[in-house]
Design a protein that fits this description.
single chain, mainly alpha, 2 helices, elongated
Length: about 55
């Protein structure tokens, strides 16, 4: 994984969820674990932005 993971749409979020499920429980320190952590951070960031947008409405 060379680029940061950024979620812009609901579809991106759904794909991220599917990828997390695909990765399962990777070995500690593996590339898959790092990808899973990046996905989790991107998903949390998207959720926070999404919630803030709803609060403004």
């Amino acid at each position: 994984m060379k680029e940061p993971i950024v979620i812009h749409t609901d579809e991106d979020y759904e794909r991220a969820q599917l990828r997390v499920k695909e990765l399962g429980r990777p070995a500690e320190g593996s590339a898959e674990e790092k990808e899973q952590q990046a996905l989790a951070e991107a998903m949390l960031s998207w959720e926070l932005r999404h919630d803030e947008a709803e609060d403004r409405d």
